[in-house]
Amino acid sequence: MSMDKQTLSKLAAELGVSVTTIYRVLHNKPDVKAATRQKVLAHIRSSGYHLSIKADDLRLIGIVDTFKRHRLSSYYTAQLLEGIDEALYPAGYTTTLVHTERVEQEQGAYGHVKLFNQLAGIIWLEPAFDRHSLTMVAQNHIPCVVINSCEPGLPVEIVECASFSAAKTATEYLIGLGHRKIAFIGGQFNYSSINDRVHGYREALDEADISVSPALVIEDIAQWSNEGGAEGVYRLYSKQERPTAILVSSDFLIGGVYRAVRELKLTIPRDVSVISFDDSP
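Given the sequence above, the corresponding structure tokens read:
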């Protein structure tokens, strides 16, 4: 909470305390006696003073996302938001959801994002953070951390999982089980994390001297949902060369993968082995 200097001085004179004491009470600083704190706050409430709120006072962090691929009901999103809140809350921060569409609308209409004036910083989930995103963040002078999906080489703080090594390890595990016809289901390769996963898959096969068959690689799934996962399986098994194992690039697709496998009268793992990302229950 904030007041202009003139109001602070007037309030201090009315209460017979220093301006510094008023400031420390308004910003919830330590080293103010409880009785003095209560006296100041009670006087503010009874006298009708107006308190403005700044981003630093709110300590509010915006979580930017389209909330289309990352459905709020999904296990992945729930775990992600819980982890963010667990880290920020003890430090005195609160989180709020910010829709990317709103950000783009304000940037286009005003040349800046008015909503960002109410935030101490943002955590960017989607869409994939690119040069346009970087320019917008820089113009608005707001601290930003990106999670997982970012255009390579951009000067921004990023937190990401080890998608390449995880995909490579998963593929190596399937090779170790004796599989040679290992398929990959993915798409949306503007996301660096998904792109890394298909590269990890390909490198594991290459190092094992197993050629990557184009018929076993589905790289253009558009629906990041159970429908997209089912589509991938149906397309794989519509071809003459069929897989004995499938690496699925995200658990957003896995429900559809399981459903399609059942509908094709196949059994996991007898007929096909399946590994996916995100560790959803």
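The two ends are 43 Å apart (CA to CA). Try to locate this feature in the token string yourself.
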